């Protein structure tokens, strides 16, 4: 899927995009009265999926939201039909991390959503040089599964999914 | 004693033996003798020569030899040159490889002590020391060695040509990487070693030329703790250095510091980097300028500005913040630095602000400016000096006022904090600026609907009013008064609310309080007479709260104290009484909080309640002889007793309450007979509050016994109409006595335990334990000067936990939940060590079907799980399966959430303990991912995510 060779992220390494544009974080979701009412069924909605995706960028101590890689308008969920679609936008068209970011998003959703959901993760059309190839990789169940067998790749994905702390 | 005779005798006996152990025993004996009689030794030269010679002997003999030498160094006068020769022999003949603890310890000990002789030894001593600590690995010896090295540096030994050697031999341990072995008996921590080494390395500027390159190199490390240690060591040494020590490394240091802040992934490293930059800048600022030398401060700041300033022009990019932080760190270092930096960045920031059109950009710029202003605040030392920002006053003011006039709420909020910071710059703002600011704040208060903005505005008004009261007295308060009181049609609830809280916020100075409290009182009395259209109960409460807040925050002067006691409180009581007589409700809860503050009014309040004395109240049109504590016809009068509680129960214990016996008996009567819940509960609380403070003795005991008897007889007759009242009085009196460790409390708490099985009162009794164990807000707390002994909860628990467990086991199945509920109420309030004793009962309680029990059990389990006791780890199987069962089956969302939090907390247990549960937990947590409640799902997502990371590469 991705070669794990170019993925070393340490203090001394050169960043591909050292000074990216940053975007404001949307605030915490406001609690509504119906969410506290035991009798009401809350459907899974776009915002909920978006909140699940507060993932760290592998390059920056910033979340994908702050880098505008993931936006709420590009997250689509249909609870009744059990489908989720997420479009993500790499910060630069040649970002070599695109596959890794997509993989992290996919893994996070696999871990966080009920089994019944069909998950589709792909690049926002027209925002990456090798868009088609990356999308194809992310859609291929077997290749995703194989990628996660690779322990050094899994390590980077897990780091992205760890809650921020040092 | 004849030491020399003894010495020769001893030598003949054992010191010539062929067995090293025997020789060692001989030397040991001699050394011990010397320790006893070093004061009157005459043969010091002989002894020293003997001991120096013994050092060449077998290594087993070394420890007693060192002991002896130590005894000799205690002599007040050593023969000239002997110290030097002793140390030479030490360095030559004692090998560090002899690793007996006592050897190392006494060797180093020797060196710390006779320092008075050692300066003469100079560089030789340093060299000897360097040689002897070379290659040391034992943390105990290292700690000692670092301390000695620090002493060598601090006491001004001549390091001579061995400076570099001393540096090398210590710095090779930098940065310290040491993990103490488990069960380490010596208890030396990594932090101790770090601190000790840091003290050595930063001890002298002579190390600068070696240390700074080393730090620059170590900062490149991938290990976070090494980076942090390097930055902190840098900060420590820079505070000792002068500019010439750092001059040639400035560029390298700056590059490293910039990189750490620009690319950091950790806040601790970022702040350590910023702190180092501040220290570096202030180090350069201390330099004295010669006419021919270059100004290293401005050279350095040019470097900083060159790399950072241009990022400030890109408010949408990531590096704007790291750059601003770096500049601000430099700016806060000294007055000169702040002048240089602000002169360079402020014009362009101001320019940017006016040319940018996007709100988010302008907000970022504004926040950057605010931080600059705040960073200077801390460094401003002399008061009469002109503010760094004087040159920019006009532009900054127009910037802040234009931001306040924007419609974007986050811009407005940032602008209020900028206004506060500007006002705190001494002598910066002119009176006209303040007046304009007050106009803006008033406008926002009256018109702005956004809660966050009005909160920020109120806060800003409070801060400004403390510094510039005059403008608020002449402008803000009259305007608010008109708005609250006069205008009827336009003013509505939210505006009044904001005005009331603003009045409270600005009243920090006595001069403002003089103007603001009459407004609040006027509001209260007009609310009463119905003069204000649509004045709600909440507004009355808010007005009272504002008065309370003023009383708490205002400077405690005689004037304000008198104002409260003579004017405000009688007025409030009078209003409350009027309301009661007219049957109006809603006034009491507000008044209560203000009345509490009024110690001096207590005696008047007592005579009002007991004797119906209304003479001290203003607007006196009350009927004489009203009887507030007698069972009257209306509860609106009887509930006035809560004001009495406010007055008398908050008095210090030393103040005598007048007519206390009569008061107590009327309160008891009222609490046992009245049918209005607020009235009888308040009477019971007031009674309890007074009992808690009565002095020990027969009169107290007989009072308690009388009350106990009355309460118990009511409780024992199941047909009594006032059982609830009796129960209420019992529980409050029990609490009052429990708090002060009164022995008679046991009768009442035992009664409470027995009521757990009662058909009607069982559930109330279980809840009663929560009342016993928690702090109550209005009475019987330390704020009311109640007699509260420390650890009363633990004491209650240890005396009664057995009773509870017994009761639980003996109770019939349908009564068991009451016991578990009582248990969880008690345990909830205990420190977690105590909880551990009850683990098995808690696990039992998780199986109880009562939701309340489940929830409170889970909430006392969760903190225990953060730092799990070993006993808990043995019961993991039971814990995990019960939690998972609750997650899937609990009918109430809060129980599922609490169980998920516990499961989440379990993921931080030692990995090898919980790894066996991973697959099972992950399977079980798949189900709550599809829970019907979103809040449950989000807890499940977090918990499952953590369990996935467990045992996975890169996870944990």
From TrEMBL, chain A:
Keywords: Chromosome partition. The keyword Ribosomal protein does not apply. The keyword Ribonucleoprotein does not apply. Pfam families: FeS_assembly_P. Belongs to the MIP18 family. Component of the cytosolic iron-sulfur protein assembly (CIA) complex, a multiprotein complex that mediates the incorporation of iron-sulfur cluster into extramitochondrial Fe/S proteins. As a CIA complex component and in collaboration with CIAO1 and MMS19, binds to and facilitates the assembly of most cytosolic-nuclear Fe/S proteins. As part of the mitotic spindle-associated MMXD complex it plays a role in chromosome segregation, probably by facilitating iron-sulfur cluster assembly into ERCC2/XPD. Component of the CIA complex. Component of the MMXD complex, which includes CIAO1, ERCC2, CIAO2B, MMS19 and SLC25A5. Interacts with CIAO1, ERCC2 and MMS19; the interactions are direct. Interacts with KIF4A; the interaction facilitates the transfer of Fe-S clusters to KIF4A to ensure proper localization of KIF4A to the mitotic machinery. Interacts with CCDC117; the interaction is direct. Residues 54-121 form the MIP18 family-like domain. GO terms for biological process: chromosome segregation; protein maturation. GO terms for cellular component: cytosolic [4Fe-4S] assembly targeting complex. This is Cytosolic iron-sulfur assembly component 2B. It comes from Lates calcarifer.
TrEMBL record, chain B:
PANTHER family: DNA REPAIR/TRANSCRIPTION PROTEIN MET18/MMS19, MMS19 NUCLEOTIDE EXCISION REPAIR PROTEIN HOMOLOG. Residues 15-263 form the MMS19 N-terminal domain. Key component of the cytosolic iron-sulfur protein assembly (CIA) complex, a multiprotein complex that mediates the incorporation of iron-sulfur cluster into apoproteins specifically involved in DNA metabolism and genomic integrity. In the CIA complex, MMS19 acts as an adapter between early-acting CIA components and a subset of cellular target iron-sulfur proteins. The keyword Protein biosynthesis does not apply. Component of the CIA complex. This is MMS19 nucleotide excision repair protein. Belongs to the MET18/MMS19 family. Residues 499-906 form the MMS19 C-terminal domain. InterPro entries: ARM-like, ARM-type_fold, MMS19, MMS19_C, MMS19_N. Keywords: Cytoplasm, Cytoskeleton, DNA damage, DNA repair, Nucleus, Repeat. GO terms for cellular component: cytosolic [4Fe-4S] assembly targeting complex; MMXD complex; nucleus. GO terms for biological process: DNA repair; iron-sulfur cluster assembly; protein maturation. It comes from Lates calcarifer (Barramundi). The keyword Transferase does not apply. It is found in: Cytoplasm, Cytoskeleton, Spindle; Nucleus.
């Amino acid at each position: 899927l991705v070669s794990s060779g170019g993925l070393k992220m340490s203090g001394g390494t050169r960043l591909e995009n050292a000074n990216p544009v940053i975007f404001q974080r949307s605030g915490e979701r406001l609690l509504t009265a119906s969410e506290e009412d035991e009798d009401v069924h809350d459907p899974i909605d776009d915002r909920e999926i978006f909140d699940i995706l507060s993932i760290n960028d592998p390059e920056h101590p910033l979340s994908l939201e702050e880098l505008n890689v993931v936006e709420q308008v590009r997250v689509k969920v249909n609870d009744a039909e059990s489908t989720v679609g997420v479009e993500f936008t790499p910060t630069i068209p040649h970002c070599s991390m695109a596959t890794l970011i997509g993989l992290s998003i996919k893994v996070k959703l696999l871990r966080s959503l009920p089994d019944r959901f069909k998950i589709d993760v792909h690049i926002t059309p027209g925002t990456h040089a090798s868009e088609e190839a990356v999308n194809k990789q992310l859609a291929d169940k077997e290749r995703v599964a194989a990628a996660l067998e690779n322990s050094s790749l899994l390590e980077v994905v897990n780091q992205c999914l760890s809650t921020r702390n040092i | 004693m004849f030491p020399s005779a003894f010495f020769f005798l001893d030598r003949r006996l054992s010191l010539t033996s062929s067995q090293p152990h025997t020789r060692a025993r001989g030397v040991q004996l001699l050394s011990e003798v010397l320790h006893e009689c070093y004061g009157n030794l005459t043969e010091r030269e002989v002894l020293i020569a003997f001991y120096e010679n013994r050092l060449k002997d077998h290594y087993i003999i070394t420890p007693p030899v060192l002991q002896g030498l130590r005894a000799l160094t205690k002599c007040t006068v050593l023969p000239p040159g002997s110290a030097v020769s002793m140390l030479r022999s030490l360095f030559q003949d004692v090998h560090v490889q002899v690793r007996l603890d006592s050897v190392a310890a006494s060797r180093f000990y020797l060196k710390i002590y006779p320092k008075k002789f050692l300066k003469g030894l100079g560089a030789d001593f340093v060299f000897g020391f360097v040689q002897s600590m070379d290659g040391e690995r034992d943390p105990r010896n290292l700690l000692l060695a670092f301390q000695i090295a620090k002493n060598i540096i601090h006491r001004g030994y001549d390091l001579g040509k061995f400076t570099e050697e001393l540096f090398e031999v210590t710095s090779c341990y930098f940065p310290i990487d040491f993990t103490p072995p488990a069960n380490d008996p010596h208890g030396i921590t990594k932090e101790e070693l770090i601190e000790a080494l840091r003290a050595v390395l930063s001890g002298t500027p002579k190390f600068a030329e070696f240390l700074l390159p080393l730090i620059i190199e170590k900062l490149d490390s991938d290990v976070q703790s090494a980076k942090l240690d390097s930055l902190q060591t840098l900060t420590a040494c820079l505070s000792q250095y002068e500019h010439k020590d750092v001059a040639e490394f400035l560029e390298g240091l700056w590059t490293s510091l910039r990189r750490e802040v620009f690319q950091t992934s950790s806040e601790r490293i970022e702040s350590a980097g910023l702190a180092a930059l501040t220290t570096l800048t202030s180090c350069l600022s201390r330099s004295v300028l010669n006419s021919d030398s270059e100004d290293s401060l401005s050279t350095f700041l040019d470097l900083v500005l060159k790399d950072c300033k241009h990022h400030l022009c890109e408010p949408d990019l990531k590096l704007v913040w790291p750059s601003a932080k770096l500049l601000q760190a430099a700016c806060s270092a000294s007055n000169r630095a702040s002048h240089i930096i602000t002169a360079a960045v402020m014009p362009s920031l101001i320019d940017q602000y006016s040319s940018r059109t996007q709100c988010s950009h302008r907000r970022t710029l504004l926040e950057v400016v605010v931080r600059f202003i705040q960073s200077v605040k801390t460094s401003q030392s002399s008061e009469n000096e002109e503010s760094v920002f004087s040159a920019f006053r006009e532009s900054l003011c127009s910037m802040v006022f234009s931001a306040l006039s924007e419609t974007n709420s986050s811009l407005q909020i940032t602008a209020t904090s900028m206004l506060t910071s500007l006002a705190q710059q001494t002598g910066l703002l002119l009176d006209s600026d303040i007046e304009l600011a007050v106009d803006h704040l008033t406008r926002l208060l009256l018109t702005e609907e956004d809660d966050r903005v009005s909160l920020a505005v109120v806060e800003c008004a409070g801060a400004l009013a403390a510094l510039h009261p005059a403008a608020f007295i002449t402008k803000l308060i009259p305007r608010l008064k008109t708005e609250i009181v006069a205008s009827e049609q336009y003013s509505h609830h939210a505006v009044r609310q904001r005005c009331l809280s603003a009045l409270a916020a600005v009243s920090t100075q006595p001069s403002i309080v003089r103007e603001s409290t009459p407004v609040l009182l006027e509001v209260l009395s007009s609310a009463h007479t119905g003069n204000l259209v649509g004045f709600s109960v909440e507004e009355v409460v808010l007005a009272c709260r504002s008065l309370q807040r003023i009383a708490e925050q205002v400077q405690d002067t005689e004037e304000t104290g008198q104002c409260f006691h003579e004017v405000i409180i009688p007025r409030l009581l009078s209003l409350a009484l009027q309301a009661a007589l007219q049957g109006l409700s809603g006034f009491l809860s507000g008044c209560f909080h203000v009345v509490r503050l009024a110690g001096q009014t207590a005696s008047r309040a007592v005579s009002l309640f007991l004797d119906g004395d209304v003479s001290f109240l203003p607007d006196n049109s009350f009927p004489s002889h009203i009887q507030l504590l007698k069972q009257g016809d209306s509860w609106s009068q009887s509930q006035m007793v809560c004001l009495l509680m406010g007055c008398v129960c908050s008095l210090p214990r030393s103040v005598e309450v007048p007519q206390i016996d009569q008061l107590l008996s009327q309160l008891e009567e009222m609490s046992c007979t009245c049918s209005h819940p607020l009235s009888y509960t308040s009477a019971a609380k007031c009674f309890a509050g007074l009992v808690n403070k009565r002095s020990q003795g027969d009169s107290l005991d007989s009072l308690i016994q009388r009350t106990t008897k009355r309460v118990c007889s009511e409780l024992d007759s199941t047909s009594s109409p006032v059982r609830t009242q009796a129960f209420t009085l019992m529980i409050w009196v029990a609490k009052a006595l429990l708090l002060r460790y009164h022995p008679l409390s046991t009768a009442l708490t035992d009664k409470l335990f027995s009521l757990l099985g009662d058909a009607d009162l069982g559930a109330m009794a279980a809840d009663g334990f929560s009342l016993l164990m928690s702090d109550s807000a209005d009475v019987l707390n330390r704020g009311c000067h109640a007699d509260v002994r420390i650890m009363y909860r633990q004491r209650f628990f240890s005396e009664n936990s057995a009773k509870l467990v017994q009761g639980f086991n003996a109770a019939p199945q349908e009564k068991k939940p009451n016991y578990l509920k009582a248990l969880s109420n008690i345990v909830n309030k205990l420190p977690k060590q105590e909880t551990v004793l009850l683990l098995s009962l808690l696990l039992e309680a998780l199986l109880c079907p009562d939701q309340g029990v489940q929830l409170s059990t889970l909430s006392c389990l969760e903190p225990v799980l953060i730092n799990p006791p070993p006993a808990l780890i043995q019961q993991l199987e039971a814990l995990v399966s019960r939690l998972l069962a609750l997650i899937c089956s609990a009918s109430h969302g809060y129980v599922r959430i609490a169980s998920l939090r516990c499961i989440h907390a379990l993921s931080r247990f030692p990995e090898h303990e919980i790894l066996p549960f991973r697959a099972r937990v992950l399977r079980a947590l798949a189900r709550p991912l599809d829970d019907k409640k979103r809040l449950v799902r989000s807890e499940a997502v977090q918990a499952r995510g953590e369990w996935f990371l467990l045992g996975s590469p890169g996870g944990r």
